[in-house]
């Protein structure tokens, strides 16, 4: 069981499923919303139980982002045409047991850091 929460604890989430696609996103939207790089993994929609009142923001025509209304923690990313949901690895309580599989949107990354971990990168 993997469990997590926002900073204030108003929103919690959990899954018994094995999360997939552990990645770090460097896109402009994730950088602006998280203040840096956003790390996430995903599970099927039905495999993630969310408790609390998530504020969903329609970030684009293809996806929405979910955060806590009280503390502002950015917790979820959901594509409109997919049956999966991504959750913030940084919000997981305790070890995740996951290993990073890729960096995405690296062409948009900030100029103030380098990627030197050897993990595959996608533009």
From TrEMBL:
Any coiled-coil regions, as ranges: none
Pfam families: GFA
Keyword Nucleotidyltransferase: no
Keywords annotated in UniProt: Lyase, Metal-binding, Zinc
SUPFAM superfamilies xref list: Mss4-like
The keyword Zinc is annotated on this UniProt entry: yes
Start and end residues of each CENP-V/GFA domain: 2-114
InterPro entries from the UniProt entry: CENP-V/GFA, Mss4-like_sf
Family label: Belongs to the Gfa family.
Protein's name according to its UniProt entry: Uncharacterized conserved protein
Species per Swiss-Prot/TrEMBL record: Shimia sagamensis
Origin organism lineage: Bacteria, Pseudomonadati, Pseudomonadota, Alphaproteobacteria, Rhodobacterales
């Amino acid at each position: 069981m993997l469990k997590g929460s926002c900073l204030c604890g108003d929103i919690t989430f959990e899954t018994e499923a094995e999360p997939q696609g552990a990645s770090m996103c460097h896109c402009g939207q994730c950088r602006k919303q998280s203040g840096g790089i956003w790390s996430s993994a995903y599970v099927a929609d039905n495999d993630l139980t969310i408790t609390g009142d998530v504020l969903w923001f329609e970030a684009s025509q293809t996806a929405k982002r979910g955060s806590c209304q009280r503390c502002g923690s950015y917790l979820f990313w959901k594509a409109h045409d997919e049956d999966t949901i991504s959750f913030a690895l940084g919000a997981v309580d305790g070890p995740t047991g996951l290993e990073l599989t890729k960096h995405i949107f690296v062409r948009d990354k900030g100029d103030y850091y380098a990627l030197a971990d050897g993990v595959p990168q996608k533009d």
